[in-house]
Amino acid sequence: MEKHVLALQLSHLLGEEFSREWVYSLIEIPKQEKFGDLAFPCFQLAKSFRQSPAKIAAQLAPRLEHDLFASAQPAGGYINIFLNQPVLTEQTLKQILTEGTNYGSHQFGADQNVVLDMSAPNIAKPFSMGHLRSTVIGNALANLAEKCGYETMKINYIGDYGTQFGKLLAAYQKWGDDEQIRSNPIPELTKIYVRFHEEAEQDPSLIEEGRHWFKKLEGNDAEAVKHWKWFKDASLEEFNKIYDLLGVTFDLTRGEAYYNDKMDGTVYQLKENGLLTDSEGAKVVRLDDEGLPPCLIKKSNGTTIYATRDLTAAIDRYNSYQFNEALYVVGHEQTLHFQQIKHVLAKLNLPWAQDVKHISFGMMLQNGSKMSTRKGKTILLKEVLAEAIDQAKTNIEDKNPALINKEEVAKQVGVGAVIFHDLKHDRRNDVEFSLKDMLTFEGDTAPYLQYANARAQSLLEKAKYVQEDAEVSLHDPNAWTVVKQLRLFPEMVMRAYTDYDPSKIARYLLDLAKAFNKYYAGTKILQEEQLHARLTLVYGFSVVLKEGLRLLGIHTPEKM
Ligand code: ARG
């Protein structure tokens, strides 16, 4: 709001060629409070005005006037703007009181829908840290999209097809133990799969057996299908336990295999459009003009592959939902695959191809290298979550043994810690897996945020604050940093969504909580004078913090 006012005034003063948008994009928020609340750098104006930035700042500053500005001061090549604290504080508190959890919402996504492809673990394999990333990033993006007015459709595209299932079926024939699989499906299936790979190194005939079983599966052989279905159901049951813990739901869970009998249409369409070429017996779509390797559609032995299924699924999704955006939250090792998918869709003259976006993320590394199931060294998410919850429980016993709903709070804190640890990083970066970092409850963590809220809640409870007592006129310079943070929330929501970057919210919440904790430490909040206004600020803080955490998929206990 104040940024828009400033941009408008400056662009008026500067003349037509300096648009409001351009000015807006240059406005900074100074790191140090002594430089004001907003700053406008004049360096880029020097050339047009043939004057030093300092001179330009000195000329412009006195001409900036508005109710929202307390003063505008030139300093070096900058104009530093100090805002009218009482007016803006009042506005902010009023707005949060009236809008409640709707504060920070937008309407730019109204009447549009976003389809998210997220989580997508592979059956018969442990739920990996990479799939955790896809799940929590996708979930946060869906929440953010909804906050911006979009409708969302969350799809879990389970990896339930491919040659590896031939290998698994072959391994099952050899070493499968029904009893074990029933009681402990994923570890048991992983074990025989790993063994298959190990033994195949000595005995190449195994690979042939794997192929044979995949052929059977493709040919709908009753036995192959029966076992494959069993492995799938057992895996999904395990995955659902994790989704329950994470509090993530899907609008549609649909495996890759669903598209097996629907790919002919895609292949036909590609052919009709003259896009299919032969390459050593295989069918491919050449992407030379895009500078990409060809997209493989059909192998020389006639089997279709991952890309063909993804193309078919994308077309099916568009036909079903007419999405405005389709976001694929998948690790960056699949970047080439999604570039190829997008280009092939574009070559089919499907105008919506441009709305297909790969939201890539970095890998979870272990000692600097990728975790791999084949070698059996994947860290089990289930164990990480269990340990986080355990640790949260220990902390509660330590700090607040009288707490009534310990189990529930421990779950919210432990799971929150794991989710936040992921989301606070820029998604594009690789993250070194560290159980220790994940389970630290101090510093830049979810429990730190949750504690700040519990502190706020306990103040409100002590003072028996009810919203009817709210007062919005607060004259307290110490409160200003908190108010300023509260004012940033709507913009942060918008930027987090438009950049597909939940870490913007995560880092914002840390700044907000730090400002609040500083205020809490330096000000006696429960004092007679301006009590209700101060409590309203505390209440506003709690509303925004909780809503921000909700967007990230994290619960906030009232007490901890
Ligand atoms: N199951 C795949 C994997 O674990 C990810 C699938 C991503 N989604 C997609 N539409 N391709 O690598």
UniProtKB/TrEMBL annotation:
Protein EC: 6.1.1.19
GO MF, any single term: arginine-tRNA ligase activity
Keywords, sorted A to Z: Aminoacyl-tRNA synthetase, ATP-binding, Cytoplasm, Ligase, Nucleotide-binding, Protein biosynthesis
Residue ranges occupied by any Arginyl tRNA synthetase N-terminal domain in the UniProt entry: 4-83
Cytoplasm listed as a keyword: yes
Catalytic activity of the protein: tRNA(Arg) + L-arginine + ATP = L-arginyl-tRNA(Arg) + AMP + diphosphate
Gene3D superfamilies, per the entry: Arginyl tRNA synthetase N-terminal domain, HUPs, Isoleucyl-tRNA Synthetase, Domain 1
Pfam families reported in the protein's UniProt record: Arg_tRNA_synt_N, DALR_1, tRNA-synt_1d
Protein's UniProt keywords contain Cell cycle: no
Motif mapping: 'HIGH' region: 121-131
Residue ranges occupied by any DALR anticodon binding domain in the UniProt entry: 449-560
Primary location recorded for the protein, binned into one broad class: cytoplasm
Entry's family note: Belongs to the class-I aminoacyl-tRNA synthetase family.
Subunit structure: Monomer.
NCBIfam families listed in its UniProt record: argS
UniProt protein name: Arginine--tRNA ligase
Organism the protein comes from: Halobacillus naozhouensis
